[in-house]
């Protein structure tokens, strides 16, 4: 009797989940392989916390505040570079991204455009800047152009993805009243997607502010340039000031731009009832 | 709620430019690329100036049918004719021109929320405007006057510079009607125009459509799924079920049994809007 009572009921067989197991082992192997490939010296790693404290003290115990005006000027250059790059990049991305969207451009136009964006995405901004500076020289304008062209890769992709995911009701209404392609894009698509595109444009500016510091490494000017120079000369009290300025400016711009983006998007929330038949 | 108080009176001073037109569907079948047959051998004629309800459950093909009439959906076989236009034969510019003579309103209003009421209604003039004007949103004095008169006729003139997104559902549908009227259409199509509205607003929008039919003599086809709206506001009813016409007769005298044949099930409480 008792033996019968405890016997488990006939449950369906447990699934074997072979795919999950294979995936887990693959991920584990990749992670372990990555560690091996990095050539890590564990002895040196133990010294890292001490080094951090050492250089932190050098940089921040007694920052050389006399460098502040120069640092702010160079930061202003970096921000200008980022802003001009975002402006140019967003305009180009919008012009190229709209015809790359499904339902707007024909296939023979969409494919090459998307290919172009993918190629640009694969090339880092620094490399683009190095190519451009053979023409325009080591100026902040080179940096702005590099940011603009480099930005097209991702920003044009965001543009056509935004258009493709936009609700199509207004487009249908414009077509139904006899509008052609240009009317459909201008009055069916643009009013619907422009808030999101504006938000993405600001986000592009935020990204460019950070990228412009990296572009300084190759000497196109701005705060990144100054940072590289003073690091190479091991003037840690000045580097400390520069890092503080970069962090404060970047965080402020992110906060302000983020607040504007939220305002744009919340204003865009549909208040009507949207149901499909 | 103030939608109710601003309901406009019918205006008889704006006859459509081309007069009302008949609509003819001859053996129309629509098969979508995914294999779904939305319409099966539908043949029917709607006379000029008639007010017709197309009734059916969702998925019955009534949305597809109304979209074949203005060429948003091309029939797989058969032909569609609206007045002088052989819609199912037309492509490109000629098709857009034909669409310009056919107004349409939608369940979801399909207004650009970010644009002004004026620019939304101006869309109705696009088939009469050159591209550079539509791109800039610049209307001639005549286009502007037409838009203002259309907005006035649905009681939305005072909202002309408001953003469409700031309006209530009933107001949005009125702007959508004004957009269609700005086309000076000969035929008006409506795809479930009141399904997103509360009952009092739904009644007033249906009354607007009936007034447009009566005063301008426009041919009106309206998709509905509610039996009392069909009976109250339209004269003729076409019942669709699984893509086939299963009823075609007067709307007012259609019995519950007729509706059960259209729905393919007993009549339920939700098949009526009520007050």
TrEMBL record, chain A:
The entry's cellular-component GO terms read: plasma membrane
Keyword Amino-acid biosynthesis applies? no
Q: Which InterPro entries match?
A: MetI-like (IPR000515), MetI-like_sf (IPR035906), PhnE/PtxC (IPR005769)
Q: Which Gene3D superfamilies match?
A: MetI-like (1.10.3720.10)
Which UniProt keyword terms apply here? Answer: Cell membrane, Membrane, Transmembrane, Transmembrane helix, Transport
Major subcellular site? membrane
Give the location in the cell: Cell membrane
Q: Which residues cross the membrane?
A: 82-105, 126-152, 212-233, 239-260
The annotated topology with respect to the bilayer is: Multi-pass membrane protein
Tell me the GO molecular function terms.
ABC-type phosphonate transporter activity
Report whether Transmembrane shows up as a keyword of the record.
yes
Reading the lineage from the top rank, the first entry is: Bacteria
Which residues belong to any copy of the ABC transmembrane type-1 domain? 75-257
Similarity comment: family membership: Belongs to the binding-protein-dependent transport system permease family.
Q: What is this protein called?
A: Phosphonate transport system permease protein
Origin organism is Demequina mangrovi
TrEMBL record, chain B:
Select a single GO molecular function from the record's annotations and give it.
ATP hydrolysis activity
Signal peptide positions are none
User: Which stretches make up the ABC transporter domain?
Assistant: 23-267
Q: Which PROSITE patterns match?
A: ABC_TRANSPORTER_1, ABC_TRANSPORTER_2
> Where does the record place the region Disordered?
1-21
For this record, the Gene Ontology CC terms, alphabetical, are: membrane
Q: Where is the composition biased (Basic and acidic residues)?
A: 1-10
Q: Per its UniProt record, what Pfam families does this chain match?
A: ABC_tran
UniProt KW keywords? ATP-binding, Cell membrane, Membrane, Nucleotide-binding, Translocase, Transport
Q: Which SMART domains match?
A: AAA
- Note the CDD domains from the entry: ABC_PhnC_transporter
Q: What is this protein called?
A: Phosphonate transport system ATP-binding protein
Higher taxonomy: Bacteria, Bacillati, Actinomycetota, Actinomycetes, Micrococcales
């Amino acid at each position: 009797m008792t033996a019968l009572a405890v016997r488990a009921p006939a449950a369906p067989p447990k699934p074997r989940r072979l795919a999950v197991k294979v995936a887990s082992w693959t991920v584990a192997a990749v992670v372990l392989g990555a560690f091996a490939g990095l050539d890590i010296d564990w002895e040196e790693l133990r010294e890292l916390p001490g080094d951090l404290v050492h250089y932190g003290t050098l940089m921040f115990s007694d920052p050389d505040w006399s460098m502040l005006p120069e640092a702010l000027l160079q930061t202003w250059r970096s921000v200008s570079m980022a802003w001009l790059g975002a402006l140019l990049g967003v305009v180009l991305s919008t012009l190229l991204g709209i015809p790359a969207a499904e339902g707007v451009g024909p296939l023979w136009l969409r494919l090459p455009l998307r290919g172009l964006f993918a190629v640009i995405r694969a090339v880092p901004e620094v490399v683009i800047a190095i190519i451009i500076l053979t023409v325009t020289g080591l100026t902040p304008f080179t940096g702005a152009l590099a940011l603009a062209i480099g930005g097209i890769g991702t920003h044009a992709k965001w543009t056509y993805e935004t258009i493709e995911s936009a609700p199509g009701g207004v487009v249908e209404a414009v077509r139904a009243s006899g509008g052609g392609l240009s009317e459909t894009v201008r009055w069916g698509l643009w009013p619907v997607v422009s808030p999101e595109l504006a938000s993405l444009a600001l986000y592009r500016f935020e990204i460019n502010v950070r990228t412009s510091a990296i572009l300084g490494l190759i000497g196109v000017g701005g705060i990144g340039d100054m940072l590289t120079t003073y690091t190479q000369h091991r003037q840690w009290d000045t580097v400390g000031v520069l890092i503080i300025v970069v962090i404060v400016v970047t965080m402020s711009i992110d906060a302000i731009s983020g607040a504007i983006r939220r305002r744009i998007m919340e204003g865009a929330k549909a208040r009507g009832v949207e149901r499909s038949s | 709620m103030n939608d109710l108080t601003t309901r406009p009176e019918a205006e008889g001073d704006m006859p459509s430019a081309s007069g009302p037109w008949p609509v003819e569907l001859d053996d129309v079948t629509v098969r979508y690329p995914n294999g779904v047959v939305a319409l099966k051998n539908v043949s029917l004629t709607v006379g000029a100036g008639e007010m017709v309800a197309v009734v059916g459950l969702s998925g019955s093909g009534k949305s597809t049918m109304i979209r074949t009439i203005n060429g948003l959906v091309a029939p797989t076989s058969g032909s569609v004719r609206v007045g002088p236009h052989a819609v199912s034969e037309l492509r490109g510019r000629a098709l857009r021109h034909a669409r310009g003579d056919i107004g349409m309103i939608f369940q979801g209003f399909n207004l650009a929320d970010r644009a002004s009421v004026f620019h939304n209604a101006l869309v109705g003039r696009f088939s009469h405007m050159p591209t550079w004007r539509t791109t800039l949103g610049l209307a001639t004095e005549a286009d502007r006057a037409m838009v203002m008169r259309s907005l006035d006729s649905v009681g939305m003139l005072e909202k002309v510079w408001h953003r469409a997104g700031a309006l209530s559902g009933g107001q949005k549908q009125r702007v959508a009607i004004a957009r269609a009227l700005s086309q000076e259409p000969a035929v008006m199509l409506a795809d479930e125009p009141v399904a997103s509205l509360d009952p009092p607003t739904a009644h007033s929008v249906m009354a607007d459509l009936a007034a447009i039919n009566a005063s301008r003599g426009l041919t009106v086809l309206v998709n509905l799924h509610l039996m009392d709206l069909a009976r109250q506001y339209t004269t003729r009813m076409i019942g669709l079920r699984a893509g086939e016409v299963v009823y075609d007769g007067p709307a007012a005298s259609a019995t519950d049994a007729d509706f059960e044949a259209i729905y393919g099930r007993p009549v339920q409480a939700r098949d009526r809007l009520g007050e």
